[in-house]
Inverse folding.
């Protein structure tokens, strides 16, 4: 991943914002991501997508608060937090200073399926997994909630939840947001290597182009890839039937069996693109954005047939020993100023009302960027994955496993 840079800041928000405003124009990466419409070949706005490698980023410990501080263990995707040149997170440091809560921040989510497979036996047994807050994508959040693996959020401890964007307030898997709260949102489309394709890719049909046989990668799990094959045939992933999903999985299986698809990947699909193993893959737009400076041959396209939009959701695993501290974390990052600072570093779609206005105080260029605040026109061609019952999801996962071998 390309290194991200953010000035190190301590103390109150006014000092932090002043420092950001003073330094932002000198940050080459900031200008590259926010202001350059032609730097990256995109079929639409890019969102920085998250990935994980199991590493840990710890901040420093601050003062005390009314709850007496304590500890908090957070497990997230890699590069999904603001970092300064020393590898510390200014917002985590400020959270610790304001609350007295000592944070152990880990980046252990490589993929939704890997994370679930690792911890499911403990969760099913009712054991504490040693994580107080994790971040998982919509379909996995739905599964965790359905299986009873998540603690109920005490809304009284998260008053800033009132800043949640109305469009995200009532997903079908958690209509009252009793168990989950969005961290950030993003898109899934086509990621590719221009040196190998020799042309821009604008259609999902490019995944099946014989010219790329053996050089095509797909993201694992049904949510990131199967819906794109539905869109390829003009079907809406939100309204398609289970049979439609299974038929799409079967078509993926045919492409795997024929040798068109090289492999199914987690976040390591990006490594395969970078080292030349792949010409094209289903991928997350921000991965390309974050690496395009060092690898200008990489490009991203939002396909004309449509693309997927998703939310990564904060949740408190069942039996977490520091539940109230996890809720304090949620509340902190739903303050618009804190949300704006996070958004100003990672360039995701912020779920927090007021973040756009707060970003405008830091950097007007960012407030006008579709990288974080996409227009209705952009959103009109973005689709949500459908939620399934436990039995339906099991049947679909079986079909996908049979198709992909994963």
């Amino acid at each position: 991943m390309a290194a991200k840079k953010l000035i190190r800041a301590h103390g109150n928000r006014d000092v932090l914002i002043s420092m950001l405003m003073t330094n932002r124009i000198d940050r080459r990466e900031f200008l590259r991501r926010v202001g350059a419409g032609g730097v990256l070949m995109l079929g639409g706005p890019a969102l920085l997508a998250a990935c994980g490698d199991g590493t840990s980023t710890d901040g420093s410990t601050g003062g005390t608060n009314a709850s007496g501080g304590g500890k908090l263990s957070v497990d997230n995707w890699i590069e999904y937090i603001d970092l300064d040149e020393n590898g510390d997170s200014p917002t985590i440091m400020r959270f610790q200073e304001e609350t007295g809560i000592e944070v152990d921040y880990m980046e252990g989510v490589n993929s939704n399926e890997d994370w679930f497979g690792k911890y499911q036996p403990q969760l099913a047994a009712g054991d504490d997994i040693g994580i107080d807050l994790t971040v998982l994508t919509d379909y996995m959040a739905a599964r965790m909630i359905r299986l009873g693996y998540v603690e109920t959020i005490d809304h009284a401890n998260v008053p800033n939840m009132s800043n949640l964007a109305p469009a995200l307030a009532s997903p079908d898997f958690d209509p009252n947001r009793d168990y989950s709260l969005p961290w950030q949102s993003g898109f899934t489309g086509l990621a590719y290597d221009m040196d190998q394709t020799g042309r821009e890719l604008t259609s999902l049909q490019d995944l099946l182009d014989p010219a790329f046989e053996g050089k095509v990668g797909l993201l694992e799990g049904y949510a990131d890839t199967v819906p794109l094959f539905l869109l390829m045939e003009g079907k809406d992933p939100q309204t398609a039937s289970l049979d439609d999903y299974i038929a799409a999985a079967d078509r993926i299986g045919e492409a795997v069996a024929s040798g068109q698809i090289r492999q199914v990947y987690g976040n390591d699909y990006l490594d395969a693109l970078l080292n030349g193993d792949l010409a094209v893959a289903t991928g997350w737009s921000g991965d390309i954005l974050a690496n395009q400076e060092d690898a200008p041959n990489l490009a991203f396209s939002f396909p004309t047939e449509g693309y997927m939009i998703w939310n990564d959701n904060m949740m408190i695993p069942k039996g977490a020993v520091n539940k109230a501290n996890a809720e304090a974390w949620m509340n902190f990052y739903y303050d618009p100023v804190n949300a704006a600072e996070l958004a100003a570093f990672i360039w995701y779609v912020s779920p927090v009302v007021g973040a756009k206005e707060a970003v405008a105080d830091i950097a007007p260029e960012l407030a006008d960027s579709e990288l974080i605040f996409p227009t209705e026109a952009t959103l009109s061609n973005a689709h949500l994955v459908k939620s399934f019952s436990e039995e339906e999801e099991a049947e679909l996962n079986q079909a996908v496993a049979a198709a992909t071998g994963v």
About this structure: DSSP finds 16 helices and eleven strands in the chain. The domain at 187-309+384-404 is CATH 3.40.190.10 (D-Maltodextrin-Binding Protein; domain 2).
